Amino acid sequence: MHNDAAEGNAVARHYPRGERIDPHSHAWGQVLFAVAGVMWVEVGREAFVVPPRRAVWIPAGTEHSIHMMSAVRMRNLYLPTRSTGHLNRRSDLFEVSGLLRELIIMIAEYQGRHDDAYLKAAYKLVLLELARAPRSSLRIPMPEASDRRLERLCRAVIENPSIDFSFAHYADNAGASVRTLSRLFRQQLGMGFAEWRRQVQLAVAMSRLAEGQPVSQIARSLGYLPSSFSDMFRRALGAAPGAFVASETLGAMQAEDGDATPMPFT
User: What is the pTM of this model?
Assistant: First the structure.
Protein backbone atom coordinates (compact mmCIF):
# COMPACT_ATOMS: atom_id res chain seq x y z
CA MET A 1 0.00 0.00 0.00
CA HIS A 2 1.23 3.49 -0.88
CA ASN A 3 0.83 6.52 1.36
CA ASP A 4 -0.75 9.14 -0.89
CA ALA A 5 1.01 11.94 1.01
CA ALA A 6 4.47 10.37 0.58
CA GLU A 7 7.03 11.49 -1.99
CA GLY A 8 7.55 7.90 -3.03
CA ASN A 9 8.16 4.34 -1.91
CA ALA A 10 10.91 1.80 -2.52
CA VAL A 11 11.73 -1.90 -2.24
CA ALA A 12 14.94 -3.94 -2.29
CA ARG A 13 14.59 -7.59 -3.30
CA HIS A 14 16.76 -10.46 -4.53
CA TYR A 15 15.59 -13.04 -7.08
CA PRO A 16 17.21 -16.24 -8.38
CA ARG A 17 17.82 -16.75 -12.09
CA GLY A 18 14.74 -17.97 -13.89
CA GLU A 19 12.25 -16.37 -11.50
CA ARG A 20 9.20 -14.90 -13.24
CA ILE A 21 6.83 -12.20 -12.06
CA ASP A 22 3.48 -12.53 -13.81
CA PRO A 23 1.75 -9.59 -15.54
CA HIS A 24 0.65 -6.94 -13.05
CA SER A 25 0.44 -3.18 -12.64
CA HIS A 26 0.91 -0.56 -9.91
CA ALA A 27 -1.11 2.45 -8.81
CA TRP A 28 2.09 4.55 -8.91
CA GLY A 29 4.77 4.87 -11.58
CA GLN A 30 7.70 2.49 -11.17
CA VAL A 31 11.44 2.79 -11.75
CA LEU A 32 12.54 -0.82 -12.26
CA PHE A 33 16.29 -1.20 -11.67
CA ALA A 34 18.78 -3.91 -10.70
CA VAL A 35 22.18 -3.21 -9.19
CA ALA A 36 23.25 -6.65 -10.43
CA GLY A 37 21.81 -9.10 -12.92
CA VAL A 38 19.77 -8.78 -16.10
CA MET A 39 15.98 -8.64 -16.44
CA TRP A 40 13.71 -9.28 -19.44
CA VAL A 41 10.72 -6.96 -19.00
CA GLU A 42 7.63 -7.18 -21.20
CA VAL A 43 5.31 -4.18 -21.40
CA GLY A 44 2.45 -4.49 -23.84
CA ARG A 45 3.91 -5.58 -27.17
CA GLU A 46 7.49 -4.62 -26.32
CA ALA A 47 10.29 -6.26 -24.38
CA PHE A 48 13.20 -4.49 -22.71
CA VAL A 49 16.51 -6.04 -21.78
CA VAL A 50 17.60 -4.41 -18.53
CA PRO A 51 21.22 -4.91 -17.48
CA PRO A 52 22.85 -2.91 -14.67
CA ARG A 53 23.19 0.78 -15.51
CA ARG A 54 19.85 0.73 -17.31
CA ALA A 55 16.37 0.93 -15.85
CA VAL A 56 12.77 0.91 -17.06
CA TRP A 57 10.24 3.64 -16.39
CA ILE A 58 6.76 2.06 -16.12
CA PRO A 59 3.87 4.56 -15.84
CA ALA A 60 1.11 4.00 -13.31
CA GLY A 61 -1.46 1.41 -14.35
CA THR A 62 0.77 -0.13 -17.04
CA GLU A 63 0.70 -3.94 -17.06
CA HIS A 64 4.12 -5.59 -17.23
CA SER A 65 5.88 -8.87 -16.48
CA ILE A 66 9.49 -9.65 -15.52
CA HIS A 67 11.80 -12.62 -16.16
CA MET A 68 15.12 -12.84 -14.31
CA MET A 69 17.68 -13.80 -16.94
CA SER A 70 20.29 -14.17 -14.19
CA ALA A 71 20.30 -13.77 -10.43
CA VAL A 72 19.01 -10.25 -9.81
CA ARG A 73 19.41 -7.69 -7.03
CA MET A 74 16.42 -5.48 -7.71
CA ARG A 75 15.94 -1.95 -6.39
CA ASN A 76 12.61 -0.33 -7.30
CA LEU A 77 11.19 3.12 -6.74
CA TYR A 78 7.47 3.94 -6.85
CA LEU A 79 6.48 7.53 -7.60
CA PRO A 80 3.02 9.12 -7.23
CA THR A 81 1.36 10.36 -10.40
CA ARG A 82 1.23 13.94 -9.08
CA SER A 83 5.05 14.03 -9.33
CA THR A 84 5.57 12.33 -12.71
CA GLY A 85 3.62 14.46 -15.18
CA HIS A 86 6.90 15.53 -16.82
CA LEU A 87 7.88 11.92 -17.56
CA ASN A 88 6.88 9.84 -20.56
CA ARG A 89 3.37 8.39 -20.60
CA ARG A 90 4.71 5.20 -22.16
CA SER A 91 7.37 2.87 -20.82
CA ASP A 92 10.98 3.87 -21.42
CA LEU A 93 14.37 2.20 -21.14
CA PHE A 94 16.98 4.70 -19.98
CA GLU A 95 20.59 4.97 -18.91
CA VAL A 96 21.23 5.24 -15.17
CA SER A 97 23.82 7.83 -14.21
CA GLY A 98 26.15 7.30 -11.27
CA LEU A 99 24.16 9.83 -9.25
CA LEU A 100 20.79 8.24 -10.04
CA ARG A 101 22.15 4.79 -9.22
CA GLU A 102 23.32 5.90 -5.78
CA LEU A 103 20.04 7.71 -5.11
CA ILE A 104 17.99 4.62 -5.94
CA ILE A 105 20.19 2.39 -3.77
CA MET A 106 20.17 4.83 -0.87
CA ILE A 107 16.39 5.22 -0.90
CA ALA A 108 15.64 1.52 -1.41
CA GLU A 109 18.09 0.21 1.16
CA TYR A 110 18.21 2.94 3.78
CA GLN A 111 14.95 4.92 3.58
CA GLY A 112 14.04 3.97 7.15
CA ARG A 113 17.22 5.63 8.44
CA HIS A 114 16.55 9.12 7.03
CA ASP A 115 14.06 11.78 8.05
CA ASP A 116 11.23 12.98 5.83
CA ALA A 117 13.00 16.17 4.73
CA TYR A 118 16.04 14.20 3.52
CA LEU A 119 13.91 11.70 1.60
CA LYS A 120 11.80 14.48 0.07
CA ALA A 121 14.94 16.12 -1.28
CA ALA A 122 16.26 12.76 -2.54
CA TYR A 123 13.04 11.98 -4.41
CA LYS A 124 13.04 15.43 -6.02
CA LEU A 125 16.56 14.83 -7.26
CA VAL A 126 15.50 11.42 -8.60
CA LEU A 127 12.74 13.10 -10.62
CA LEU A 128 15.21 15.59 -12.08
CA GLU A 129 17.63 12.81 -13.01
CA LEU A 130 14.86 10.74 -14.61
CA ALA A 131 13.82 13.67 -16.80
CA ARG A 132 17.35 14.18 -18.15
CA ALA A 133 18.42 10.53 -18.42
CA PRO A 134 19.36 9.41 -21.97
CA ARG A 135 16.80 7.03 -23.46
CA SER A 136 17.78 3.74 -25.09
CA SER A 137 16.42 2.61 -28.45
CA LEU A 138 16.89 -1.10 -27.65
CA ARG A 139 13.28 -2.31 -27.66
CA ILE A 140 12.28 -5.76 -28.83
CA PRO A 141 8.82 -5.83 -30.43
CA MET A 142 6.61 -8.74 -29.40
CA PRO A 143 3.78 -10.35 -31.40
CA GLU A 144 0.09 -10.15 -30.69
CA ALA A 145 -1.01 -12.99 -28.43
CA SER A 146 -3.94 -13.61 -30.79
CA ASP A 147 -1.66 -15.04 -33.50
CA ARG A 148 -0.42 -18.27 -31.97
CA ARG A 149 1.80 -19.19 -34.92
CA LEU A 150 3.97 -16.08 -34.65
CA GLU A 151 3.93 -16.12 -30.86
CA ARG A 152 4.97 -19.79 -30.83
CA LEU A 153 7.88 -19.04 -33.17
CA CYS A 154 9.02 -16.01 -31.17
CA ARG A 155 8.94 -17.91 -27.88
CA ALA A 156 10.96 -20.72 -29.47
CA VAL A 157 13.59 -18.23 -30.63
CA ILE A 158 13.74 -16.63 -27.18
CA GLU A 159 14.32 -20.10 -25.71
CA ASN A 160 17.12 -20.88 -28.18
CA PRO A 161 18.21 -17.99 -30.44
CA SER A 162 21.20 -19.77 -32.04
CA ILE A 163 21.74 -19.06 -35.73
CA ASP A 164 22.28 -22.81 -36.13
CA PHE A 165 18.49 -23.03 -36.50
CA SER A 166 17.01 -21.65 -39.72
CA PHE A 167 13.84 -19.64 -40.19
CA ALA A 168 12.38 -22.65 -42.00
CA HIS A 169 13.09 -24.85 -38.97
CA TYR A 170 11.17 -22.50 -36.67
CA ALA A 171 8.38 -22.09 -39.23
CA ASP A 172 7.87 -25.85 -39.49
CA ASN A 173 7.57 -26.14 -35.72
CA ALA A 174 5.15 -23.22 -35.62
CA GLY A 175 2.91 -24.84 -38.24
CA ALA A 176 3.11 -22.09 -40.86
CA SER A 177 5.00 -21.39 -44.06
CA VAL A 178 8.09 -19.19 -44.22
CA ARG A 179 6.20 -16.84 -46.55
CA THR A 180 3.30 -16.44 -44.12
CA LEU A 181 5.55 -15.87 -41.13
CA SER A 182 7.75 -13.42 -43.05
CA ARG A 183 4.62 -11.37 -43.76
CA LEU A 184 3.53 -11.54 -40.11
CA PHE A 185 6.97 -10.42 -38.91
CA ARG A 186 6.80 -7.33 -41.09
CA GLN A 187 3.17 -6.58 -40.25
CA GLN A 188 3.33 -7.08 -36.48
CA LEU A 189 6.98 -6.53 -35.54
CA GLY A 190 8.09 -4.07 -38.19
CA MET A 191 11.25 -6.02 -39.08
CA GLY A 192 12.41 -9.28 -40.57
CA PHE A 193 13.13 -12.51 -38.73
CA ALA A 194 16.93 -12.15 -38.81
CA GLU A 195 16.90 -8.65 -37.32
CA TRP A 196 14.44 -9.64 -34.61
CA ARG A 197 16.45 -12.73 -33.65
CA ARG A 198 19.62 -10.62 -33.49
CA GLN A 199 17.99 -8.39 -30.86
CA VAL A 200 17.08 -11.45 -28.81
CA GLN A 201 20.65 -12.74 -29.16
CA LEU A 202 21.96 -9.47 -27.75
CA ALA A 203 19.60 -9.83 -24.79
CA VAL A 204 20.80 -13.36 -24.07
CA ALA A 205 24.43 -12.34 -24.54
CA MET A 206 24.13 -9.50 -22.02
CA SER A 207 22.60 -11.81 -19.43
CA ARG A 208 25.42 -14.32 -19.86
CA LEU A 209 28.09 -11.64 -19.76
CA ALA A 210 26.56 -10.45 -16.48
CA GLU A 211 26.99 -13.97 -15.12
CA GLY A 212 30.66 -13.93 -16.08
CA GLN A 213 30.61 -16.35 -19.00
CA PRO A 214 33.53 -16.00 -21.45
CA VAL A 215 32.77 -14.17 -24.69
CA SER A 216 33.96 -17.15 -26.76
CA GLN A 217 31.56 -19.49 -24.97
CA ILE A 218 28.62 -17.14 -25.46
CA ALA A 219 29.47 -16.68 -29.14
CA ARG A 220 29.55 -20.41 -29.84
CA SER A 221 26.31 -21.04 -27.92
CA LEU A 222 24.63 -18.58 -30.30
CA GLY A 223 26.17 -20.15 -33.39
CA TYR A 224 28.86 -17.51 -34.05
CA LEU A 225 32.60 -17.50 -34.33
CA PRO A 226 33.91 -15.26 -31.52
CA SER A 227 35.14 -12.59 -33.96
CA SER A 228 31.81 -12.49 -35.84
CA PHE A 229 29.88 -12.29 -32.60
CA SER A 230 32.05 -9.43 -31.33
CA ASP A 231 31.48 -7.51 -34.58
CA MET A 232 27.70 -7.99 -34.34
CA PHE A 233 27.66 -6.93 -30.69
CA ARG A 234 29.78 -3.83 -31.36
CA ARG A 235 27.65 -2.71 -34.31
CA ALA A 236 24.45 -3.03 -32.27
CA LEU A 237 25.57 -1.61 -28.92
CA GLY A 238 28.59 0.54 -29.75
CA ALA A 239 31.03 -1.45 -27.60
CA ALA A 240 32.74 -4.83 -27.71
CA PRO A 241 31.26 -7.56 -25.48
CA GLY A 242 34.46 -7.55 -23.43
CA ALA A 243 33.71 -3.95 -22.46
CA PHE A 244 30.30 -4.88 -21.06
CA VAL A 245 30.76 -4.91 -17.28
CA ALA A 246 27.99 -5.55 -14.78
CA SER A 247 28.08 -3.17 -11.85
CA GLU A 248 28.97 -6.08 -9.61
CA THR A 249 29.71 -9.72 -10.30
CA LEU A 250 27.13 -12.42 -9.76
CA GLY A 251 29.57 -15.09 -8.63
CA ALA A 252 28.83 -14.62 -4.94
CA MET A 253 25.10 -14.69 -5.57
CA GLN A 254 25.41 -17.92 -7.59
CA ALA A 255 27.47 -19.46 -4.80
CA GLU A 256 24.73 -18.54 -2.33
CA ASP A 257 22.22 -20.28 -4.61
CA GLY A 258 24.45 -23.36 -4.57
CA ASP A 259 24.43 -23.51 -8.36
CA ALA A 260 26.89 -21.66 -10.56
CA THR A 261 25.70 -23.37 -13.77
CA PRO A 262 24.28 -20.84 -16.26
CA MET A 263 20.60 -21.38 -16.96
CA PRO A 264 19.16 -21.38 -20.49
CA PHE A 265 16.94 -18.40 -21.23
CA THR A 266 13.45 -19.94 -21.25
Answer: 0.78
Q: What is the CATH number of domain 9-132?
A: 2.60.120.280
Q: Is 143-257 in CATH node 1.10.10.60?
A: yes
Q: In this structure, what DSSP letter does residue 81 have?
A: G
Query: Within 10 Å of residue 155's Cβ, how many Cβ atoms?
Result: 13
Q: Where are the domains of the chain?
A: 9-132, 143-257
- As a dihedral over the C-alpha atoms of residue 122, residue 75, residue 208, residue 194, rounded to 10 degrees, the angle is -80
Q: Which of 153, 100, 92 is nearest to 127 (CA)?
A: 100
**Per-residue pLDDT tens over the stretch 164-213:** 889 999 888 888 899 999 999 999 999 999 999 998 998 888 878 877 88
Q: Name the 3-class secondary structure at 12.
A: strand
Q: What does the angle CA 136 – CA 137 – CA 140 come to, to the nearest 5 degrees?
A: 115
Radius of gyration of the chain (CA): 19
Of 238, 239, 236, 232, the closest CA to residue 218 belongs to 232
